[in-house]
Amino acid sequence: MIFPHIPQNEPTEEQYFYAETDELKYISDYTGLNFNEVLELDCYTYKVLLRDAYIYKMSQTKEGREYLQECYILQQKEPDRKALREKFGGGSL
Length: 93
What we know:
- This protein is mainly alpha-helical.
- The protein is 57% helix and 0% strand.
- Helix 1 (22-31) packs across helix 3.
- The chain is elongated.
């Protein structure tokens, strides 16, 4: 299972502190479970809910949707032949 992200060589801003429970908060807000209930989930369910909660949160804003779209594009292994033909025209690819 892949967590949507855009690889970056350099951080875009300096961060001095990191939340230790941010994953629990994402899942808790998404599911309504409290932290103890989240911690009792099996690891597969935890990861699925974390991924879904993150995608849901990102999809709530225009910037988040653009970020998810960029993540999707970067994960593609095959070229979008139709889009390339529309942009550059012509021949077979």
